[in-house]
Amino acid sequence: MPNGRAMTATSATTVAAPAREPGWVDEVGLTGGAGLLARLVRLNMLVSAALDGLVEPFGLTVADYLVLGTIRHSPGGQGAPSRLCRLLGRTSGGMTLALDRLAAAGLVSRAPDPTDRRRIIVELTEAGDVLSRRVNDRLHEWEAELALPAAVRDDLHLTLDVLLDAVATPGAGRRP
């Protein structure tokens, strides 16, 4: 019973059922207990703070790192700003500011698309590629430091993928 949780089996995966509410539930005043959204908000806050602390020594924000990482993993190592906006949920104005900042730092370059002069192609510079890989390595080190057992990690991957699909479904969580 790790972390005070009893394990119960379901047909899809093993699910942790709380034996008791964690201490933070009382601390933040959730007298009725913590539901899924409260847990997700708490996790988001903790992970966001950790990520901010991990990327800050590299002179980046998490949003800037995500732009670099998305370009690095894009087909051909290139990306159109409109695609970056769609993948990262950013506005075109916010993406322009991020790309301006990254270009000024020498981490990305922008050039007209040779097949369509109306479009811009964004690529990482060598410095941007190196920095993106260094930050990515540090993020993987942090994840490994969590020391989650392989079975728990596998269950989390499956559970979070199901949750992501459910939340990403148009109309999810909205009343008709």
UniProtKB/TrEMBL annotation:
Q: Which Pfam families match?
A: MarR_2
Residue span, HTH marR-type domain? 33-169
Q: Under the GO molecular function aspect, what terms does this record hold?
A: DNA-binding transcription factor activity
Q: Which domain of life does this protein belong to? A: Bacteria
Gene Ontology annotations of biological process type: response to stress
Which PANTHER family did the record assign? TRANSCRIPTIONAL REGULATOR, MARR FAMILY, TRANSCRIPTIONAL REGULATORY PROTEIN
- This chain's protein is named MarR family transcriptional regulator
* Species of origin: Frankia nepalensis
